[in-house]
Amino acid sequence: MRRPLIAGNWKLNGSRESALELAADLISGSADLSADLLVCPSFTLLNPVREALAGSPVALGAQNVSAESSGAFTGEVSAAMLAEAGCAYAIIGHSERRTLYAEQDRELAAKVLQALSASLTPILCVGESLAEREQERQEAVVQQQLDAALGELETTAIAKCVIAYEPVWAIGTGRSASPQDAQAVHASIRAWLGGLSESLAPSVRLLYGGSVKPDSASALFEQTDIDGALVGGASLNASDFLAIARAAAS
Ligand code: PGA
């Protein structure tokens, strides 16, 4: 049985004050929840949020990680630095990083390796654009992204990853994929894992992301291969985020 994971991607939002308030609300609302909760604030908010979450079951993650371990890479933050800052997870290859910052598949494979080498759990994001969906190429696109980012890894390393399916057209648009459409791609991701190793397929957690809201969450989580969510907008509101987490836990 895969334990649900509900991850909040706070993106470029929040102040120290609002982040601490959100963290406190999440702690008080998450007791006895049978789902893993994770928040991913901006780099500069990691430390205050880590302190606020200390002793709670809510985990901390980063929204990005460098493909390099150290050296002359101005503006980068390494996996080891993130681990030292208290992160347990790192989001890798979010579509905003791919499209706005031109992150390439090759670089993403290196980021996954860096994260694993610092014992961070990579959350690898994959997903098709609207044009690709209209051409019904979603499964082929996702498979190509998986091959590029994870294809060279040992299956024991892939077993330590989380994969988030986030159709680009659903992110921040209020237009979630239907549970059936999301499930179809999740099943194809699980089949891809099964093609590498039979034992891998049932163990890796697959999250759905893209306009997940409290009222759309339950139907998504009822799908066989959806093990949680990567939540953007709704993760900035504690009661919405907790409602999504409760839907996953029930
Ligand atoms: P959204 O963002 O929930 O606001 O659509 C999801 C994401 O970008 O991870």
Could you name the key traits of this structure?
250 residues, alpha/beta, TIM Barrel, eight-stranded parallel beta barrel, 11 helices, 8 strands, globular, binds 2-phosphoglycolic acid
CATH superfamily: Aldolase class I
Largest sheet: 8 strands, parallel, barrel
What's the gyration radius in Å? Answer: 17 Å
The number of helical elements comes to 11
Quick one: overall form?
Answer: globular
Average pLDDT, to the nearest integer?
A: 96
The CATH architecture assignment turns out to be: Alpha-Beta Barrel
Low-confidence residue ranges:
none
> What share of residues is helical?
40-55%
- Percentage of β-strand residues: 5-15%
Summarize the structure.
The chain is of the alpha/beta class and 250 residues long.
Your description of this structure?
Helix content is 44%, strand content 14%. It is α/β, with parallel strands linked by helices and 250 residues long. The protein has a single domain (5-249), classed as TIM Barrel (Alpha-Beta Barrel). It has an 8-stranded parallel barrel with strand order 1-2-3-4-5-6-7-8, surrounded by 6 helices. Helix 3 (79-84) links the parallel strand 3 and strand 4. Helix 1 (16-29) runs parallel beside helix 2, helix 1 (16-29) runs parallel beside helix 11 (238-249) and helix 10 runs parallel beside helix 11 (238-249). The longest helix is centred in the last third of the chain and has 18 residues, at 179-196. The protein starts with a strand and ends with a helix.
